[in-house]
């Protein structure tokens, strides 16, 4: 990364961002996704709606996040990373204000759609890393960035649980408002442009998107990441119900248990950052998928054969988090490296599939789980998606070896 001395400028940063900046801006989207999870049942009660409808506070955010990533990738390739991030951070602040003052579930959901603009931070942080580093190094750097970023999903549910218990669910969105303002200031001061805007017509951008979709290897990376994320997002959708309705946890304690998943994810990210450049992207994807499959399998055994307790659910999720921490940085680095000149588009398209697939799993899990079935459909969904990711990662590893033998 460039070490050029930063010059003060009324137009903001003119040099590439620090890694810490990428960690923080990417983490803002993760924070918006999960800070309110421990108080999700309270939101439903406060706004006079069912718990199923309240769950859309998460799922509609995931769906909007998916579609926004589909858009911001080509926009960032066309106009540059910096202006897109500044614009989307402004929309995030507006959406958060709407959430704070919402008195009906429909208004809150509209605010959540606007908040999903923070997806640009997550998608473009990967594209910026690919702007600055080569393929193998990018996988390591994404691993390190997501390792540090994993602190936020570990801390924010705890914060959301305690803040929500003390001051009510709206206070969690006030926290997000402060974060959104600080992130916008950080982008302005420390995120100089890393990609030369491309003067190309919309038809050319659509053609580029279609060319990505015709490449088998990019689908392998996309689907591996999507299935790995599916288990995680299904868990996010179902865990608040399981924790409070079946196990009997309070919001603050539930938030603490969510931190275990983030610890595993952080450890997996560290392994990615340390070994991806040496071992290779595809083998790391496969190993991570194996850990996810083992972890979800253990959950099924424990929760179906013993009385449900928190450690049976959240303990094995450490393995799932660890596996995702290995799989996702490598799958994302592989996807944005297939066509480096289209890193923004590839990152956005991958994010669309990854988050969209996760939202579908969260909605499916939320509609299937009940107290009567002890949420067993949730655990089976997590296992099947993890196993699917494992199979695709194994195919990608085999395919890469075959291609290397023919070259």
What does this structure look like?
The protein has 407 residues and is mostly helical. The chain has one domain (19-406): MFS general substrate transporter like domains (Growth Hormone, Chain: A). The protein has helices spanning 19-34, 40-46, 51-54, 56-79, 81-101, 105-115, 119-132, 135-149, 151-167, 170-190, 202-213, 216-247, 251-279, 281-305, 310-338, 343-368, 376-406. The protein starts with 18 loop residues before the first helix and ends with a helix. Residues 1-10 have low confidence and may be disordered.
Major beta sheet summary: none
CATH class assignment: Mainly Alpha
* First and last CA, distance: 31 Å
- Poorly predicted spans: 1-10
Please name the fourth-level CATH homologous superfamily: MFS general substrate transporter like domains
Number of domains: 1
> Any idea of the CATH topology?
Growth Hormone, Chain: A
Relative helix content = over 70%
Structural class: mainly alpha
Q: Count of DSSP helices? A: 17
Beta-strand segment tally: 0
Average residue pLDDT: 83
Per CATH, which architecture? Answer: Up-down Bundle
Our estimate of the beta-strand percent is under 5%
What string gives the helices and strands in order?
HHHHHHHHHHHHHHHHH
> From the alpha-carbon coordinates, what is the Rg to the nearest angstrom?
20 Å
Shape: globular
């Amino acid at each position: 990364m460039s070490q050029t001395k930063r010059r003060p400028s009324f137009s903001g940063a003119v040099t590439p961002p620090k890694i810490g900046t990428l960690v923080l801006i990417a983490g803002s989207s993760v924070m918006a996704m999960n800070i309110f999870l421990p108080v999700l049942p309270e939101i439903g009660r406060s706004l006079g709606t069912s718990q199923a409808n309240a769950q859309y506070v998460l799922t509609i955010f995931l769906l909007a996040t998916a579609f926004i990533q589909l858009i911001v990738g080509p926009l960032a390739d066309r106009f540059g990373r910096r202006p897109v991030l500044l614009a989307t951070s402004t929309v995030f602040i507006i959406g958060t204000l709407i959430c704070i003052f919402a008195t009906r579930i429909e208004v809150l959901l509209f605010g959540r759609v606007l908040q999903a603009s923070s997806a640009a931070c997550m998608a473009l942080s990967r594209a910026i890393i690919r702007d600055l580093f080569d393929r193998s190094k990018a996988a390591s750097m994404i691993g390190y960035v997501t390792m540090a970023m994993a602190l936020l999903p570990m801390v924010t549910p705890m914060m959301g649980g305690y803040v929500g218990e003390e001051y009510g669910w709206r206070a969690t969105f006030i926290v997000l408002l402060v974060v959104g303002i600080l992130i916008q200031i950080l982008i302005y001061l420390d995120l100089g442009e890393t990609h030369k805007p491309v003067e190309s017509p919309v038809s050319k951008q659509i053609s580029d998107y279609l060319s990505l979709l015709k490449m088998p290897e990019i689908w392998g990376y996309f689907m591996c990441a999507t299935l790995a994320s599916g288990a995680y997002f299904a868990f996010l959708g179902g865990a608040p119900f399981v924790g409070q309705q079946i196990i009997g946890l309070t919001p603050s304690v539930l938030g603490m248990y969510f931190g275990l998943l983030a610890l595993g994810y952080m450890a997996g990210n560290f392994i990615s950052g340390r070994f991806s450049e040496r071992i290779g992207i595809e083998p790391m994807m496969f190993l991570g998928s194996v850990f996810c499959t083992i972890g979800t399998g253990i959950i099924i055994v424990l929760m179906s054969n013993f009385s449900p307790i928190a450690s049976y659910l959240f303990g094995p999720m450490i393995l799932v988090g660890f596996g995702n921490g290995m799989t996702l940085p490598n799958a994302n680095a592989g996807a944005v490296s297939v066509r480096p000149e289209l890193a923004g588009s590839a990152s956005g398209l991958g994010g669309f599939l990854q988050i969209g697939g996760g939202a579908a799993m969260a909605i499916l899990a939320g509609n299937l789980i009940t107290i009567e079935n002890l949420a067993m459909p949730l655990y089976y969904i997590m296992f099947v998606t993890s196993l699917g990711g494992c199979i695709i990662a194994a195919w990608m590893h085999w395919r890469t070896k075959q291609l290397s033998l023919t070259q």
